[in-house]
Specification:
With 339 residues, this protein is α/β, with parallel strands linked by helices. It has a domain of 200 residues: Spore Coat Polysaccharide Biosynthesis Protein SpsA, Chain A. Helix content is 48%, strand content 13%. The strands form two sheets. Strands 3-2-1-4-8-6-9 form a seven-stranded mixed β-sheet, with helices on both faces. Helix 5 crosses helix 11. The radius of gyration is 21 Å and the shape is elongated.
């Protein structure tokens, strides 16, 4: 069902994003939508972003540039810039993305706003990563797909616990009614997932995953950069609602226990020469693997993702090892930047 087009404000925060703005901002400003503005918050950039945005503003009257000249950021990370952009918005419907994100179509705004009616206050979109060469790219793409499968599925079940700021829409009124980011201003990240965790419920949230509604961006170029980004995302989980922490904890723990039990059982059965039981254990593992790959294939199709199915079992096992290490390392190293 398509609802009446309502005015929309697209909000983008940018810090030294000249190249990405030059590439992606025209694709957003030229969306096929009757009534929208784009607010770009230029957050203390020391590249040529300011000159680029001025030239765009001369060409596109619906571009509103908000410039932060000095570091007056009372929040940690991106939240001050985003809150300033939201405050500067003319319209109640907000659509958020990042400067490095590319909309897949000129119907992006249309598809995301179609869900807003009398009840819906939040729309969760999907934002994937660009396919490139290298194993770290596969790791990042698998991670973003698995994350989306979880938060979108739980939202459909009425247990929304997060959204992704690369493609996220909500009401400006909801932002101010819930006092924005003030309850978690001291956390570097969380402008998307912690805010949604705080305000979403089973009645006010919808999801949108059609290819026309999606955005994509280039993942971090190295494993170290991706790991740093992943650690920053993990740092917000401690502030999720208790039920959501239990849900996510059970998923991670059960996956770890499955592989640990499988390895221990095989070792034990080899030591006791119980080869018949080894075949039984391996059969159960193959059944689990087949079921998992079937679900992953269906999900990839819905999210318009390709070329990860065959390597997905290996990536799944690697995340069993990576996730506990990231969680533990967050107790040692703290990250305070949003870029």
């Amino acid at each position: 069902m398509v609802y009446q087009h309502k005015p929309v404000t697209v909000v983008i925060c940018a810090k030294n994003e000249y190249t990405n703005l030059k590439k992606n901002l025209p694709l957003i400003l030229e969306q096929d939508y009757p009534d929208f503005e784009v607010v770009v918050v230029n957050d203390c950039s020391d590249d040529d972003s300011n000159y680029l945005l001025k030239s765009f503003a001369e060409k596109y009257p619906h571009l509103n540039v908000v410039t932060i000249m000095k570091n007056v950021n009372f929040f940690v990370g991106k939240k001050f810039a985003l809150a300033l952009g939201i405050k500067s918005a003319k319209h109640d419907l907000l659509l958020l993305t990042d400067a490095d994100c590319t909309p897949k179509s000129n119907k992006w705004i249309t598809e995301m706003q179609n869900h807003f009616n009398g009840k819906t206050e939040i729309v969760l979109g999907y934002s994937g990563f660009e396919k490139k060469k290298g194993f770290s790219n596969k790791l990042a793409r698998y991670d973003v797909i698995m994350t989306a499968m979880q938060y979108l599925s739980w939202s459909l079940a009425g247990k929304t616990y997060m959204g992704v700021g690369r493609n996220l829409a909500y009401n400006r009124e909801l932002f101010f009614k819930s006092k924005g980011f003030t309850s978690h201003y001291h956390i570097p990240s969380g402008d998307d997932d912690l805010f949604i965790n705080q305000v979403a419920n089973k009645h006010n949230t919808s999801i949108e995953i059609s290819p026309l509604s999606q955005t994509f961006s280039a993942p971090k170029s190295t494993f170290k950069e991706w790991l740093t980004q992943k650690k920053r995302h993990y740092s917000t989980g401690i502030l999720y609602k208790t039920l959501h922490k239990i849900i996510l904890g059970v998923f991670v723990s059960s996956n770890f226990l499955f592989y640990a039990s499988l390895i221990l059982l095989i070792i034990l059965l080899i030591c006791t020469l119980s080869y018949q039981n080894i075949l039984l254990i391996c059969s159960l593992f193959i059944l689990k693997l087949a079921t998992q790959m079937f679900i992953f294939k269906k999900s990839m199709k819905k999210l318009d993702e390709k070329n990860l199915l065959l390597i997905s079992p290996l990536l799944d096992f690697l995340f069993v090892l990576i996730n506990p290490l990231i969680a533990f390392s967050n107790f040692i190293v703290k990250e305070n930047k949003w870029k």
